[in-house]
Write a structure and sequence with these properties.
Order of helices and strands: HHEHHEHEHEEHEEHEEEHHHEEHEEEH
Helix content: 25-40%
Strand content: 5-15%
Structural class: alpha/beta
Largest sheet: 7 strands, mixed
Bound molecules: D-malate
Length: about 400
């Protein structure tokens, strides 16, 4: 008899953003004239920038010629893109990462969720709470998280509370964690980690031979000069950390799909190179990102591409500031929105996150994300994104404040 994956059966029936989409479409079907403003999922809305478009068009033309046609891309990505990533995202910022430590992929979501495949089943795993649900769900699906308890917390995971009291940056746990997921600028709270805080984590990981899986998909949103953009700015990180980056949120590639993962050649666990193991995994399971897409991604490293992308980031950050300042003015307790596209707010009158979600949906016709969907310490919080248009953002803030 064929059986199914029991770990998957034990999980909540839907992924957070799928559940939100379900509730929203149910509401829309019942209220077809409602003009919904969507600040829920962190999906970009500005079109691809001209430099990316022209690079992609040129690549399409090349692919239509005998000389320019390309079949399977290299598993680790084309060297033209990896060279530029190494040069502009790392070396020019004084960070020692070389092109041969970079793996181009179709998303930080797929890489952060697949990376555990090269790690042992017996590892203790630590996650922030609240957390980007992909880290938890992918471990749960793989049977690594144990059973969920009554509150949906998995017994084998170490949850590290992220609260206003610790600025949403946890201290390393007393108990040893072998695999630690960190995401800064943080999704969902919009918080950032300082150099000193990351140094504590790197020292902890090196002392215990633990591994930090560092998601810096939102690094382009950092506005404060002293905040590290990469874990590899921290001394010692090359022996304990892997970094995940994405073109989704900086260059609008959520639909186009391109990202990369950095695995230092110096990173070994029990004498095994993680770089070699990831290459082994990728070459079996992944056939790379299309030439056209990689040429498009490369264009953001040209002077005009970089300027165009910066303009989009500034646009989204302005939206985040509109939300942050507008809601603060209305008396809400609000976090984030300065070095991140996300604004994290305390619900008024301590409402439960899903109750506030329903209230905003039904009364203000605004869609956000309930904080509890990111973990139990997100209960009583709510997330809004700066990824809408300026008009939608301003209108959403007026509607929310009118409905408090
Ligand atoms: C989010 O809203 O948290 C993000 O869109 C999720 C993602 O990037 O996969």
């Amino acid at each position: 008899m064929t059986t199914v994956n029991q770990s998957l059966i034990n999980m909540p029936k839907t992924y957070l953003f799928a559940e939100i989409a379900r509730r929203v479409s149910e509401f829309s079907a019942a209220n077809p004239s409602a003009n919904l403003l969507r600040l829920g999922i962190g999906d970009v809305t500005r079109p691809l920038v001209p430099a990316v478009l022209s690079a992609m068009h040129a690549a399409v033309d090349e692919m239509g010629t005998a000389a320019g046609f390309r079949g399977y891309p290299p598993y680790e990505g084309y060297s033209f893109l990896r060279d530029d990533i190494a040069k502009y995202d790392y070396q020019q910022r004084g960070i020692s990462i070389s092109a041969d430590e970079i793996f181009v992929s179709d998303g930080a979501k797929s890489d952060t969720s697949s990376f555990i495949e090269i790690l042992g089943l017996e590892n203790d795993i630590a996650v922030c709470d609240p957390v980007y649900p992909v880290y938890v769900d992918s471990n749960a699906m793989a049977g690594r998280a144990g059973e969920p308890d009554g509150e949906g917390r998995y017994r084998k995971l170490v949850y590290m509370p992220c609260t206003p009291q610790n600025g949403f940056v946890p201290l390393p746990p007393k108990k040893t964690a072998d695999i630690i997921y960190l995401c800064y600028p943080n999704n969902p709270t919009g918080a950032v980690a300082t150099r000193q805080q990351l140094k504590q984590w790197v020292d902890y990981a090196n002392e215990r031979q633990a591994l930090i899986l560092y998601d810096s998909a939102y690094e382009a949103y950092i506005t404060e000069a002293d905040i590290p953009r990469s874990i590899f700015e921290i001394e010692g990180a090359r022996t304990c950390a892997v970094e995940f980056r994405s073109f989704s949120k900086n260059a609008g590639f959520t639909g186009t799909r391109c990202a990369y993962t950095v695995i230092p050649q110096t990173l070994c666990l029990n004498g095994h190179s993680l770089h070699a193991l990831w290459m082994r995994r990728q070459s079996t399971k992944f056939n790379g990102v299309s030439y056209i897409t990689q040429r498009g991604a490369q264009a953001i490293y040209t002077p005009e591409g970089a300027a165009q992308v910066r303009e989009n980031i500034a646009y989204y950050l302005q939206n985040a500031a509109t939300i942050r300042d507008g809601l603060r003015k209305a008396g809400l307790e609000v976090y984030g929105g300065t070095n991140a596209p996300y604004v994290w707010l305390k619900t008024p009158d301590n409402q439960l996150s899903w109750d506030f979600f329903d209230r905003l949906l039904t009364q203000a016709h605004v869609v956000g994300t309930p904080g509890v969907g990111f973990g139990s310490h997100g209960e009583g919080f709510f997330r809004l994104t700066g990824f809408g248009s300026q008009e939608v953002t301003q209108e959403a803030v007026s509607r929310i404040t009118a409905n408090l």
